[in-house]
Design goal:
Order of helices and strands: EHEHEHEEHEHHEEEHHHH
Radius of gyration: 21 Å
Number of strands: 9
CATH class of the largest domain: Alpha Beta
Bound molecules: S-adenosylmethionine
Helix content: 25-40%
Oligomer: single chain
CATH superfamily of the largest domain: Vaccinia Virus protein VP39
Strand content: 15-25%
Shape: elongated
CATH architecture of the largest domain: 3-Layer(aba) Sandwich
Largest sheet: 7 strands, mixed
Length: 275
């Protein structure tokens, strides 16, 4: 970053989900949930004018990295950065989250732009192997989907994928009046704790394809979905896992989806070897 901004702030950009926090108490609560130590490396996604950044800078940490897509706000953050803060002008969606790896303990936070929150959380929770904790503010409806349990109408591919990697908790709801400009809907602050490596998906690509196949047809029965997709050995797989073919995808837990993903991966490999 070597462009230095100053002067009047530009009008908030809807395309970048710019609803800026005006309430220090909410920023304080987010920073407290992060519960950082001196060793932690923190990443903030979308710092904007820095309402949350100031609380992160005051929290224990070894390094604070700010990822901001808006040129003006990135250079504004750079202008006031201290020696432990690095500002990166980038699209967080294009960031390689596999770089967030051990041995450093990484904490990720952000009041996320509404339009990119789901794909960002999808990638971060699966790819950032060095993640110790994350706290994100998202649209309330997305927050409910992230935490949703099987059998509920909010439960879907996002819930099953994210809960296969981390344990999400809905911490508190934030009303539109806390932002400027005010969004039309409530927001939710969620914390995420990574699952132990042994509990994470062993066949993530297979899981991704399975979730996509199943939740594109969430009102259909599993047997019908797998028969139409011509998946090999699907009847044997369902029988071995004691899953009724008449169930709908929304009835299955993340653990069951993971077991099915492993079985389908093995069946497809066998099938290819034979043909
Ligand atoms: N953290 C500030 C706050 O709480 O007031 C700003 C939050 S605002 C909801 C979202 C921020 O993310 C904006 O600063 C916006 O420019 C930035 N942003 C939007 N899309 C982004 C992306 N793809 N990558 C990085 N930053 C992005």
């Amino acid at each position: 970053m070597n462009t230095i901004s100053s002067g009047t702030a530009p009008k908030a950009k809807k395309s970048l989900g710019q609803n800026f926090l005006q309430d220090d108490n909410i920023c304080r609560r987010i920073a407290a949930l992060l519960d950082t130590t001196d060793a932690d490396r923190i990443i903030e996604i979308g710092p904007g004018p820095g309402a949350l950044t100031r609380f992160l800078q005051a929290s224990p940490h070894s390094l604070l990295i700010l990822l901001e897509k808006d040129t003006w706000w990135a250079s504004d953050r750079q202008r006031v950065a201290d020696c432990r803060t690095q500002t990166v002008l980038t699209d967080a969606l294009a960031f390689d989250w596999r770089r967030i790896s051990p041995p450093y303990p990484w904490i990720i936070a952000g009041n996320l732009p509404y339009n990119v929150a789901s794909p960002l959380i999808w990638d971060i929770t699966a790819q950032a192997t060095g993640l110790v904790r994350a706290v994100f503010m998202v649209q309330k409806e997305v927050g409910l989907r992230l935490c949703a349990q099987p059998g509920t109408k909010q439960y879907g591919a996002l819930s099953a994928w994210v809960q296969s990697h981390v344990s999400p908790t809905l911490e508190f709801i934030v009303r539109p009046g806390a932002f400027s400009p005010q969004p039309k809907v409530d927001s939710a602050v969620l914390s995420f704790t990574p699952l132990p490596v042994a509990q994470r998906p062993t066949e993530p690509d297979s899981l991704k394809r399975l979730l996509s196949l199943c939740f594109q047809q969430r009102r259909k029965q599993l047997g019908g979905i797998f028969r139409r997709a011509a998946l090999p050995d699907w009847e044997d797989i369902l029988r071995a896992l004691r899953i009724e073919p008449t169930l709908r995808p929304e009835a299955l837990s993340p653990v069951t989806f993971n077991k099915m993903a492993v079985s389908f991966r093995a069946a497809l490999t066998n099938h290819k070897k034979k043909s």
